[in-house]
Amino acid sequence: MTTKQDRVSRGIPTGGQFSTMNRDEASVELDQKDVDVPQVTAWLQRNGLGLSCEAVNAMTWHINSADAPITDILMSDVYRQVHEDEYGFSHEDRQKFIQALEVLEAQGRTDLADAVRKVSVSTATVEPAEQDVASAVHDSSDFRVQAGEVFDSVRTADGTVFHRATGINWADEPQAVRLQANRPLSDEELGQISDLTKYALASSVHGEALGEPERDTPYSFVLGHDFTKGSPDRAGVFEAGLARIVTEGSPPLKTNRKGPIGSQTVPGTGDQSLKFEIYYDSVSSLN
Question: Which one, 37, 63, 175, 177, has the greatest CB density within 10 A?
Fold first, then answer.
């Protein structure tokens, strides 16, 4: 069974808890008097964090207005302040919200989890311009992405931007795919679905598998696969066949070279209600 690892940015402890950053390491001065918006944006991306454009501007202003050396500690403290001003709750509150959803799902109370998720998304304080523009890039750390909301473009913690396969976007020369399910996935399910995805890719676009799956939200994971070493133009075959393969598994073996005749290399989940949005890190578009 494939093992999974969480997709985290360099320098952030595994587990994604921003509040656990080592304060001694974070106290290093950035050796400058002021920062600009691109530098603040880059700092947020390195730490797997996200804010609206207006909030990033506010964060930049607060940092430069502080009567203190510009350090990672100052940056993180200002981020927390601006985050609470922007959304009405703290970064830690967002982490607890995600954990609460996971607890409800683990207890089998998916009805409560879905209700909490819907209310939180509908009442969230979101920058209108960001909410209305379908092409906006949303960080995977955004609580809406963590709660399973679907967006056309998602940026993972390492800065890679994934674009959803739609009628106007299609795979170009991807090095990775991102799958987002319509419900949270357990670690066991993630491993099985990753294996089934690898089979679906190998039997359609071919190419070369790259590493193990990396979870970026409770609903989604990223899987490295070099399409350029296969047939990228067959990505449509992969997309059309993925749901069936995830449900039914690989076809029964016709020879005994890889196992008993009639057995499956990778068994399916049997869950016909499980659906996926497919994202690529390289797409072409009609736009």
Answer: 177
